[in-house]
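Example record

One chain of 497 residues, shown exactly as stored in the release files.
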Amino acid sequence: MGEDTNDTQELSEILQIRRDKLQKLRDEGRDPFAATKFERTAYSADVLQNFDAMEGSDVSMAGRIMAKREMGKALFADITDDKGRIQLYIRLNDVGEQSFNDVKKGDIGDIIGITGYVFRTKMGEISIHCKTIELLAKSLHPLPEKYHGLTNQEMKYRRRYVDLIMSPDTRRTFEIRSAFIKHVRAFLDDRGYIEVETPVLNTISGGATARPFITHHNTLDLDMYLRIATELHLKRLVVGGMERVYEIGRIFRNEGMDTKHNPEFTTVELYEAYTDYVGMMDLFEELLSSAAMKILGGYKLAWHGEEIDLTPGWPRVTMADAVKEHAGVDFMSFSSDEEAAAAAAGIGVKMPEGKEATWGGLLYECFDQRVEEKLIQPVFIMGHPVEVSPLAKRSASDPRITDRFELFICRNEMGNAFSELNDPIDQKERFLRQAALRSAGDLEAGMMDDDYIDALEYGLPPTGGMGIGIDRCVMMLTDNSSIRDVLLFPTMKPVED
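Predicted structure tokens for this chain:
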């Protein structure tokens, strides 16, 4: 307890010292927050990558001081900007006493703007020989120790701004995230898809089986739901003749939190008329493998300590075959729910509370509880039961299963797709079943959407649809084990003072 008190007192003293420095500057008539802009002609990466062409030329640069080394009437300082880090050489005789002291007596974390010329030091390091220095913003809070940055993982999430300052790896993660989203857009745009926007607030929770967030619209005096999927609105657009549509956006599900799940996350959902789930498989494989090649430079990558190979040509296996291979239970040989239940119990699989023990439900639970954890290399799992696929078209060969797949890589579901159910009578019956389950206490079950049934009655062409988890794809591309590592601001429980 005493040690924590001493740490707090020491930090308070440091904070006060920095505020005293700020007040001294203001007493001198110099407000370090007065600057409104600074004209830059170069970034650190420009100089480092093009030194031969830029040597001896004047540049204007700005950034945050990350290190200082004093040498009498000269000093070296490192600054970081949007593109990286570069060394400054600052001499008292060149910049004047006031500017020299601003850096010398200033703090790590202060933001400055400089002009100077590009040169290489005697030690061979590319640097900027400063001519002028301007203090652009005073840092009032000390940065973490430079070699370790933020070592508390939870604090990295709560103070992402500090994590970004201190960790180039964190910055790289979010650069890759941005690059992946750009790749998805370009990939789909090049194939004739149109990007659209659909409502976040809805009067019906639909498009997936998940527990929604509920809010209230005051003017309409109406409870509304944050969307758990974009599916039903996007398929309405296909009915309307927009044959290739997609949306990249935030989804909200009021469920548990773990390394794979955050209450809000990002997906891309896409729908294409006149294709099916096999066409979606081909599209997904090409999208993800081309992203790895473009962003990482190859098909092979590391994730969760495994070497993953995204070379196109991924296996396509039915869920029943996967359960037979990995769990030793042949669901296709059962003719009743009772047989399936006995076999599932034999390998220790139980239905979650409130879920009906049907053939299809038990097949899915056996896969979820006994097989998913064994899937390392990319594999498409097909043939999901109707019970867990209320929006997918039934298989022509077996009415118990659907034309649906999920892609699994390294024990993670990366995306979900199916041949869309376009029979309004069948769809209404499935909605009614979901509504009955919801009335019985299953808060993840869907609701009746009469307007969507009306839309289907106008005619939805044969359509393939797919939802891809952006966050999980980024986790894979950046070798991160938690979804929080790829969200700039993950959901966190507030900290009490």
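Notes: The mean pLDDT is 94.
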